[in-house]
Amino acid sequence: MVECINGCGGMAPTHYEGVEIDVCGTCSGVWLDFGELTEIVETRDASWSANVIEKTLASLGGKGVPAEERERELTCRVCSLALPASNYQTNSGVIVNACPDGHGVWLDSGELETLQIYMERWQDIAARDSGQYQDLLRQIEADYAEKEKQSLREGPAYFDFINIFINRLINLME
Predict the structure, then answer these.
(1) pTM of whole model > 0.85?
(2) Residues 93, 152: one domain?
(3) What angle do CA 101, 117, 89 make, to 5 degrees?
(4) For 61-84, what is the mean pLDDT?
(5) Nearest by Cα to 30 from 55, 6, 51
(6) Torsion over CA of 14, 18, 21 and 26, rounded to 10 degrees?
(7) Are residues 72 and 146 in the same domain?
(8) Residue 14 CA: distances (Å) to CA of 7, 8, 24, 34, 36
């Protein structure tokens, strides 16, 4: 039986989104082996009410790692290295503890669901906006091909191309 990183005792294997994960019956912490978080986020079987999603997303955000999280002394269950705390994707506000050798990730109670909601939201945004960015990419490729025909791939004229690219990106953000 796998021991809880928080020292609570044994963890039980549980199936979540088609992935076998280890969950502590006492603290509800979760150990995910390398790659399991990606599988969970890509599966999308779990669903939440719009109210839960809205409240979860409203509670997220922020940079850095709180002092109490930095001071926790958690170790990897595979290699016993320290599991440093980090802000998932630098600004999600969800603090995770990942093995520096890539063995897995420790999530405190509720963080798995929070991360899943956060990541699925970004997937939805990317899917919604992908057509817009494909059009931009085609325009940039056409501009580059035109500059290439004119042999203007370097020097001051090339900076015009870069400016066109940056201006188009800015226009999309407005």
Answers:
(1) no
(2) no
(3) 40
(4) 89
(5) 6
(6) -40
(7) no
(8) 19, 17, 10, 16, 13
